[in-house]
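Cross-check.
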Amino acid sequence: MMPLVSAAGADDEQRLRARIRNTRLLLTTAALVMSVYLLASSFVTTVLIPHEEFEPGGAANGRALAWLAHEHVGRRSAPSTTSAPSSSCGSPVPRPWPD
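Predicted model, tokenized:
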């Protein structure tokens, strides 16, 4: 990442220090965004998925976000998102939900 981060300074040493500071800021911001996403997704899956689905053999065991997407988003958007008969490589697209 560091070569892509720009910085201002009077000489090479000042620009290097500014790039290091800006890179730290970029990585810290990315870590905070990912942490918020992780905590939010854990909270949402805990609240929205019934406890029985998390049990071994349950539909959400090991795939909670996929289960939520299928239950709440997939049924409304599935026909419109898979209207093409094949993927970009030419092989058939598997349909994980019933028609």
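The CA atoms of residues 7 and 21 lie 9 Å apart. The radius of gyration is 22 Å. Passed to J.P. for a second look.
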